[in-house]
Fold these 2 entries.
Entry 1:
Amino acid sequence: MSTTNTAVCRGLYAITDALLIADEQLTAAVEQALLGGARMIQYRDKSRDPERRLAQATALNALCRRYRMPLIINDDVELAAQVGAAGVHVGKDDPALLTARARLGAQAIIGVSCYDQLALALEAAQAGADYVAFGAFFPSLTKPDEIRAPIELLRQARAALRIPIVAIGGITPDNSPLLLQAGADALSVVSGVFGQPDIQAAARRYATLFA
């Protein structure tokens, strides 16, 4: 893990959702999030249309590079490699972290979903993850059936880990301070940003928490 990777994993980490953003509005919506202060963007799209996914990821990568912010691709290591994204986020059902590292290189930012399990995070850190993500901490509109994680887990992880910690799941500007005080470095938000009428203003409400 490079010090550059560690430095960027702090702040608002905005994740796209095809159910919240129409295809033709995706790039503009992400730009609004960046203007509002998002420090990382994750392209998350579970569709089975490779041409569409490639076109969208290519456009978002160009946008993020212009703003000098990293684009992370959810689940798809090959897509990340294809568009030259900054990195990839993998989960328990995704290709192994070591496989992603071998494909994307030492400078890639690779994050790992660890749900409610500190042991998974410790394993990921040992294997070279750049950040780990825990959650859901609160009820989530995006993933209503997601595993719930206790806030105490963040305190335990902060004491045990030296890599950035990302919190996810039902995060609002009002409940964010609880997560930051417990040790989260970044807040991963979907509908709290992209489901709002003014995306830039919504992003800014989260970004100001890190000022």
Entry 2:
Amino acid sequence: MKWLEEVFGIKYTDLHQYLLKIGTNLLMCIIILVIGFWLAKFISKALRKILRKSNTDEGLVTFVTSFISMVLKILVIVTAISQLGIEMTSFVALLGAAGLAIGMAFSGTLSNFAGGIMILVLKPFRVGDLIFTQGEKGIVKEIQIFNTYLHTTDNKVIILPNGPVANGNIINFTKADTRRVDWQFSISYGDDFEKAKKLIEQFIIEDTRILTDPEIFIGIQLLANSTVDIAVQVWVKTDDVNLVFFKMNERVYTEFEKAGMHFPFPQLDVHLKSNLNV
């Protein structure tokens, strides 16, 4: 290997030691990454179990575990880079010099992080709540450091950034213990309103899920062109809203006609005049 020294001025023993050092550092770097990422995952899972056993809010559980996982992975990457012999002081100085540009580039991400903290502190919703926000409706499954995950009723997953969610309008359908259920039923002109009202009252009394306090309301809402529109308002427990709503629709449809009520449809009277001069 004298030609190495003659051509490049490098001794074979020095080159061998240098390559051995690089190979060892590279191997250690890979080992640190593999073991470090595994430990980060293990610690995150263990922390999640501990928080859930202590009855911690599920939104806080997902937020904290995802944040800890991200921090641990960053530490693993920094440690692996240091093992390669790269001076982290220079690396940190370089990041500091580019801090302004990075901050501007990640302003949306930082906004989402701040939004996640606001959601956890102010608690406009929790994991398991049914909400409507940013034009999307679904059940909250996770609140992570940057995003909130919703599952729709047909099991689609919607991922929303925390920033717009925290700063936008939120309708929480399950935050209150009770909710009002509204219907509008239409009967024909000439049908007996009092009879229709008594039938609806009977349906309400027979449904034990409907609360007696606040009182129910049944009244004529509108005298339309072809219909007499009846407004019905009752209060139920939040979990019973859909069950009560669909059951009432079913009973009205199947039993109104038997009682002599008619479901009207749009009508138009056309009057034809004959021309006597023809």
